[in-house]
Amino acid sequence: MIGEFYMNYLDYLPILKKLNAVEREELLNAAFTRKFGKGELLHNGNNDCTGLIIVLFGQLRAYTSSYDGREITLYRLFERDTCLFSASCMLNNLQFDITVSAEKDSEVLVIPSEVYKKIMEASAPLSNYTNEIMASRFSDVMWLMDQIMWKSFDKRLAEFLITESGVEESDTLIITHEVIGNHLGSPREVVTRMLKYFVNEKFITLSRGKIQIIDKKGLRKIAEI
Fold this sequence. Notes:
Number of domains: 2
CATH architecture of the largest domain: Sandwich
CATH superfamily of the largest domain: Jelly Rolls
CATH class of the largest domain: Mainly Beta
Low-confidence stretches: none
Strand order of the largest sheet: 1-8-3-6
Oligomer: single chain
């Protein structure tokens, strides 16, 4: 029997209405919830096959790492966002080494890969929906590559601070230089130097583990947004 909670939550997904009753029931019955604490891994590399993840609440980060341990954030996931790369094993010829971790205490709905794949192979609507999600995420990655290749670091950092302020709904950011570097794919020392420049320009103030934005207009001008 389909749990009322799952039906209420998943019913907002337009694709469910395009599945037949049997497919919809099988998909919903297979779904289960999991909770993750801040910093905990949900999915680790292309050898892992967690399943399709839908964020119920909290905040997730999808990132990739270099051989020397440097990280860069590919995209972030918020309430009602869907992560398909966590089920990449069900997609033929897709090799994408991605890690997903919880940036905040989170709860997610997981649809097991084997169930999702079975229905996707028989359902054109679900297959099309899957392709749309994949195209959207690759678009995010290509946008990121464009930013790294063509946008100077001061602009990227200013934009990150503005975006982070919006996410946290505060001009006071509790975040370390190392964490910022992991998001932007830059060494901590580079982040620190640029943040000190922002301090000299009176855009921000710094204290241990905290950044206070005092001139958001100035940061927007730097970021050209």
